[in-house]
Specification:
about 475 residues; Outer membrane efflux proteins (OEP); 2 domains; 7-stranded antiparallel beta sheet; two-stranded parallel sheet; elongated
Length: about 475
Amino acid sequence: MKYCTRVLFILLLITTNINAAELNFSNKTITLEECIKIAETASLDTAINDIQKSNYDLAVISRWFNYLPDVDFNMYKNYSYLDVGKENNYQLPRNYADFEETTGKSTITGTNLTFRQKIFDANLVTLLSDANSIRTKRDIITDEFKVNLHEKIRRNYYEILLNEQKLNYYTAILDNFKPATSTGYDALLHADDRITALRIEKIILDLNEAVINQKRYLLYCLQLPLNKQLILTTPLVFPELNTDADKASVLLNNTKLKNLRIKLYENKRTFAMGFMQFIPKSSLSLDTIINDNLKLGVDVNLDGSNFGVDLIGEYLIYQNKETYYIYKDAKEPVITSTNNPKSINDWNINDTKLKLQSTISLDRIASAGVDIKRLRNAVEMAQIDITREKNILLINFENIALDISGLKKDIELVTEKLAYAQSKKELLKKSSLQDDIAKLEYYESRNNDILSYTESLFNTKLDLIKAYIIYMRVIQGGGYL
């Protein structure tokens, strides 16, 4: 009984510890930079980006597979029937003196390997010359991922800070709209305060819900437990902009400009290779029999920008040749057999063939001249696109900087209006207007002004956050939304 009691106690303790871990609402202080670093390593977006980069790497690697050798393994058996006579001058075994009415049958059985290996071609030139471009394109994938990830984290973080600031502000002014119990005219005068207080309480409830949901989303982006209580420590303060220094970062990091530079490089390469169209269409073939086992050759083809050099060969693994000679008076056929050709080590270059063919086409040369002009225009157009994109980037970047400066002034203006409306309400409480109805309506309008200016203030701050996020996005290399 005591043993069972101990077991139950241990199980209860374990269950209690698990539930305590699941309900661990511990606080976690975190800065904006810490959020970005965690997101870069732990977020689901990072996993998706890694998969995309892996697919890109696999696509690049697969291009090299074209340069693996093509090997064919062949097995064959050939039959041939011959009518052998004096007129064929066919060499029979020495013990046969009479060639008349002699027939022959030959059987060849063998196994060989044929292969072709690409040594050099136009695609290899493109692949090698694209080495830097390929790395740049892969880096662009990472850059675009980071830009979008940083923007998402930064936007969520700042909006939480803004809503917390807004929540604290409404909580602080709520008591100003809860007057003491009054009767008569004062009760009527303060009725609007109570209505305004109810409106503020509803705003506070909505803000509380918004902050909770935004923090949960931030935890989800960081792949942190959703029961953590985040405390954001980076203040909602925007540093002064240094547009002159940031312009260089915009032109250096912009991913669209990087892609345009890659396009310019590729156009220049195509333009350079276009001059090969003036080379006559040619082919060269060199075949050499090394020994009975091995044949090697080289194929060279020139066809404008399509050119290639291939190594070809054939290796005889096994061959058996049997020949039957049947004489008219012979009781059994005479069989001769040849097995096991020479070893590959028995080098004996005894046959070499060289073939060269070339064709000159005047219309092809004329077309090449036109293509060169067209390719040169493509290079110039790519350069123009880069210049135009730089100008557009800088103009839009300066406009964003001006928008940020204007929004800061708008915040100062709305802040002053809000303070002015609050001051007028305080003076109105102490005033002695003769017309009670006019005083009541004026008092009501002051409450509406306070709420209106408050909403306008925080909406303008939200616009400032959005503009600043776009500013940072552009600096990091992203485009305009």
